[in-house]
Amino acid sequence: MDNYIGKHLLIDCYNCRADEISSSENILHVLEDSTEKIGMTINDTFYHEETEEIIAAAYGVKSHVCIHAYPLIGFAAVDIYSFSTDLIPSRTMSVLRATLHPEKIRATSVKRGNINPDMKPSIKSRSTALHKFKNTGQQMKNAGQKVANFMRHKTDKRDTLGPE
Hints:
The chain is an alpha+beta fold. The protein has helices at residues 18-21, 24-38, 93-100, 129-160, and strands at residues 4-14, 44-49, 54-60, 63-70, 75-82, 104-114. The N and C termini lie far apart (78 Å).
């Protein structure tokens, strides 16, 4: 049985409204609302702004929320990490929809911190379709070279035997 206690939610917000994503005040407001919505107490913050990127991060006990906003392309990447079972990172989705107004949101959830004492590493090897395709192409190339060498060798022998 898996015993994960960490949660990591990666959220991509596409085609956000330009006025919402280019305002540093709004990004900080989104950060505050997000941490409040998931129940995180902020211990420290970080903020950095350039013309192409705004970064805002909030740090709590065993958790953080970080927003990377790219106003020129209307994209925001939100990273929510919690090593606590009390916080629920997915609650921030409603805040992002209401404040950034993205046309599309893509979220990826990752389990972190499997503390199962019986956990053993598993090694699995799989050949991907692309790898098989590359190998097939190389095999065909090698076979073609063998045929070409054979034909060249046969032609060389024939030319030394006299006229046809």
